[in-house]
Amino acid sequence: MESLEKLKGELVHSRLIEIRSYAVDKERLLVEGVLKDERPCSMYTFSGQEREPGPVHGMSVQLLVGGMPSRILDAEAEMFKVPIEECREAAKSVKKLIGLPVVYGFSKEVKERLSGTAGCTHLTSLVLTLGGAAVQGMAAHRGREPVTPELREAMLGYMKNSCWVWREEGRAFREASAMTRKRPGGA
Fold it and tell me: What is the pTM of this model?
């Protein structure tokens, strides 16, 4: 198979997403994401106007997550660069995420709550990325202390069938299940 790398021509668009997770307290985490779209070349808009190169979208979303399984306790968005001023009105749509558990089915539920006229495509893309990052951030946050038997069981239940490696019939899940059963307090 030939590498797609050889097909690259002039750069016409870039999207950068940066995500950071911050401990709030023992049970909660603040997950913050920033999305920036930039066009390094001029382009013509739908109306036929030429748009100069530069930033097109710039926005941030903050999700306060906590509990087990983790769920969104609060959400805020800021749209600091938009192509059309009216776009900023969509920032409040992230409030629809409050109460949403960050578990299997998260992406589908986010799309139902924020897609189309219910929100903003770019905010939706950012929130979808924040879901996985929230899981990783919470794992890092909780992993700073020894795992209790209750948390171990909950984590195993969360990981079950979450991806190829953690499929129920896979080696990693079987070994983790066996390890959990052998430990004091395990099922």
Answer: 0.86
